[in-house]
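Why show two proteins at once? Because comparison is the fastest way to build intuition. When a single record is shown, students tend to memorize it. When two are placed side by side, the eye starts asking what differs. So, the first record is below.
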Amino acid sequence: PRRAVAPPPLLYVPIALLGPPMGARTGARLADEPHVVGLVALAPWFPKGEPMDAMAGKQLVAAQGRSDRITSFRATTEYVDRARGHAAGAELVDMGRVGHYMFRDAGRWNDLAVTRSLSLLGLLAPQPVLTAAGPRP
């Protein structure tokens, strides 16, 4: 899997990782690759005690619904809180009372995935924090 995030040796291409549950967990483990600037994690699966070393100096955006019965809002919150001591930046986006499959409010999940990924790459200005009620300055 590490070869997938390794561009040719003489070319610097920043990479923003985007992953839903297990993909987010995988991304958090691969974030230490030199071209990776950060991770956008959607309804991530971050079990208690998940290693944090690979997030050092990287950006993390984790979005989680409060009605998710498969992955835990509390576990995601704890991971983001821990990441603040390791990562260059860590943001938790509360998607409100939505479940795991990202069908409810799909447009908002998609907007978050695209805008936060582009922001991590420096292709879009940083975005306001999203709450269940809408943007917050």
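Second record. Ask yourself what differs from the first in the token line.
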Amino acid sequence: MTTAEPAAKPAAEPAAARLILPAEAATAALGAQLAGGLAPGDVVALWGGLGAGKSVLARAILRALLGDAAAAIPSPSYTLVNVYDTPRGEVWHADLYRLAGPGEALELGLIEAMAGGAILLIEWPDRLGADLPARRLDIALAPLPAPAEPPAAEPPALAAPARDAPGPDAAAAPDAPAPGPAAATAPARAAPAAATPTPKAPTAAPTAPTAERFAPTMPAAEAPIPGDEPRAATITAHGPGWGRALERLGGQG
């Protein structure tokens, strides 16, 4: 008699939470909360377009792990990876925006660092492709649309002032006297000829500054981001062991 094998348990759905971050201070507070639940070997993948707040969140996580709220955290846009020694071990902050694909990303040693117990904070994790670790914490940031402004109310039309009708006792204005037969008619005078203006030499238009002259030298990845604009953060935990990190959110979501 063949013994039936037990049916495989369906894979658990990733735990997710969505937070509204009304200002940059709230984004920094979220980073400090998440840092308290990170352990060696954890991977935090930061998703979002330019100016979404990925660097703001990464800096907050790093400052909390370093225990220094005023620590200078430079962007890894040029270096690609910055490594920090913290009381919880090494933390690698990577910005993969400039990489063409997974091959270049693997040359940075991210997988080896994770296997060695480092905490990874990865901006633009899509560059890793299929090599993105399956166990990770995804944080997707996106700016919230600005509320629509109500249409401006049109001012009410003003009515023309009413004129008083003349009363019955109002005297009629006397008619202008007609000219008598002896009135002399003044001869018509010819209008003087208009003087022809002397043309002036055209003035040279001032040279306008070209766009190339004032073009910003910073790359697109370093474009200025709007400050204190509200954002939405969607946090998705893939794989086991993220309970402590999610508990640090204090029940938000």
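One difference worth noting in the second protein: Residues 202-225 have pLDDT under 50 and may be disordered.
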